[in-house]
Amino acid sequence: MNRFTHFFALYCSGLLLTPVTAAAQDWPQWQGATRDGVWNEPNLIEKFPDDGAKVLWRKEVNSGFGGPAVANGRIFLMDYKLREGDPTPDPGKRNPIEGSERVLCLDAKTGEWLWEQAYECPYRISFPAGPRCTPTVDGENVYTLGAEGMLMCLRCEDGSILWKVDLKERYGMKESPIWGFAAHPLVWGDRLYTMIGGEKGAVVAMDKKTGAELWRACPDADTGYCPPTIVMAGGTAQMLVWTPTTLNSINPNDGSVYWSFPLKPDYKMPVAMPAVEKNLLFASGEGASICLRLDEDKPTATEVWSGQGFTTSHSPITIVDGHGIGVDLGGALRCISLVDGQRVWETLEPTTGGRPSGAGAGFIVRCGDRFLIAGENGVLTIARMTAEKYEGLSSAKILEPTHEAYGKKVLWSHPAFAQGCCYWKNDNELVCVSLVNEPAEASGTKEAGKQ
After folding, report:
1. Per the domain annotation, does 373 fall within a domain?
2. Of 90-94, 306-310, 334-338, which gets the smallest average pLDDT?
3. Listed residue (232, 247, 166, 157) closest to 202, CA to CA
4. What is the pLDDT, as a whole number, of residue 353?
């Protein structure tokens, strides 16, 4: 069977410009405050308690692949309220269902429901569990993108809509990308960026205050699923834009192109954002990978190697001491040398519990000298990872997998890490778990089973 995996993605980059205003320990968007998968928590526990992870609260929510954002004491996330139809996915085929998308806001400490903003949204996409994107919080506003292309700016305080744009309607699209709109909105300065596809430009810059289009860049007939991101390299702010055919670096102010390399993943499916460490850039998708060396003085790049040494889909990638680490399509957490793409080590333990997986996933977050790995089996692992080896330190079962994929149950939602806690959701509930040595104050404390 073809592996039509999908949607939302991420990257890790140690040189990222902060695109949103946020407290240091907030997680206000996809991959955290600086959009690089780094959590600056100095009091992370060494291991989970013997009787399991400390769950502070649970809250019932509906289905969806998008993770939560946490900012200023509030949680923002999206889900889908099904009314009619069968959401069980048939890879590569569109499932017609009826229902509504919701933007939700909860109190981060207690899980108390603060507000919701719902709108009717029939789905005509594959894997129609719900929205793919994590909300992006910028100051007093939050930006959301639904799976069928509804882009909105809402007020954080009460959920009132400041502006909204139906991307399909504005850009004359007959239908959404088959796996839905998945490029998490990026805010940088006074602009918002997202992927739309099209011969006039696959990435669009908008005025974040009004939603008005400012410019488009990087023409490509298809939309793709990889969100744009900004890195500092060559003394320049560069926006990385990966379309279904090319990996590009552009000027985020006007969309002019600095450099471009062919990079065509299978099924027109760029998903995982490129990872950057020092002057190395690594990007990988199904059937296509590339490693580039970024010039230290100007916005140019040269190819180190390209090929299929590593193929990931929608899982995060990070770079550790010149080595790329991420989850390969078989479900293994894999480490390769970025000198030549050769495999160094791999393990299935933190991602799938040791079993091979046809479309495995795991989400990696760096915290000091350790890593947090959220596996598709609902297990959260604390580990150390170096260029030489993987060392699992402690694991705990947090959530039950609920997504249907290739005849199995998986958990493909990315958690948020903020204020000493992990916030993670499946298709039924959002859970808050304490990850610091001093227990966070909360009511209704329960335990999650330890593995």
Report:
1. yes
2. 306-310
3. 247
4. 84
Looking up residue 122, the CATH number of its domain turns out to be 2.140.10.10
Is 402 in contact with 426 (CB distance < 8 Å)?
yes
Residue found under tokens 């205003």 = 21
Domain count, the chain: 1
Place of tokens 């493909």: 412
Angstrom distance (rounded) from CA 284 to CA 290: 7
Q: Is 335 domain-assigned?
A: yes
Express as a percent the part of the chain with pLDDT over 70.
91
What residues make up the domain containing 316?
54-447
User: How confident is residue 309, by pLDDT bands cut at 50, 70 and 90?
Assistant: low
Residues with Cβ within 8 Å of 349's Cβ and at least 6 positions away in sequence, in order, are 333, 381, 392
Residue 419 lies in a domain: yes
Q: What are 333's two structure tokens?
A: 């957490």
Given this model, what pLDDT does residue 3 score?
33
Within a domain: residue 43?
no
Encode pLDDT of 376-392 as tens digits: 999 999 999 999 999 99
Instruction: For the chain, report the end-to-end CA distance as a whole number of angstroms.
Output: 32
Q: Please give the biggest Cα pair distance in the chain.
A: 57
pLDDT in tens, 396-427: 999 999 998 878 899 999 999 999 999 999 99
pLDDT tens digits for range 163-203: 999 999 999 999 999 999 999 999 999 999 999 999 999 99
